[in-house]
Design goal:
Layout: E1 2-9, E2 19-26, E3 32-38, H1 45-56, H2 60-73, E4 75-82, H3 83-99, E5 105-110
Antiparallel strand pairs: 1-2, 3-4, 3-5
Helix pairs in contact: 1-2
Length: 111
């Protein structure tokens, strides 16, 4: 949060030189974080599609297209979120992949 101060002289002309202090608060937007899915040679494509649908709310066709991007390029951004939401999504995906014995990797980076 940034606080700005402004000094203002009394302009009533009564000879009293008073000073009034005003504060204005400017809020800054929190930094955003990209959630990334990384390609590997072992996780089935269907599992990646399921993860994208379940944890990122994508339709089947959107999830399939994004999975192909991960497969071809090695990595893809699956969403941009606040830090807390991004951390939660990464943890959910990693936990889900581990429980299903897949080496799928999900990470976050500052936008």
């Amino acid at each position: 949060m940034l606080v700005e101060f402004e000094l203002m002289a009394d302009r009533e002309g009564d000879g009293d030189v008073g000073v009034k202090l005003e504060t204005r608060t400017k809020t800054q937007r929190p930094p955003m974080y990209k959630v990334l899915i990384l390609n590997d040679d072992f996780t089935p494509m269907e599992f990646v599609v399921h993860v994208l649908e379940r944890f990122f709310g994508l339709s089947h066709s959107q999830a399939f297209e994004l999975m192909l991007t991960v497969h071809k390029k090695g990595v893809a951004v699956v969403g941009v979120f606040s830090h807390e939401v991004a951390e939660t999504k990464v943890a959910q995906v990693m936990d889900f992949a581990q429980r299903h014995q897949h080496p799928l990797q999900c990470t976050l980076e500052k936008e």
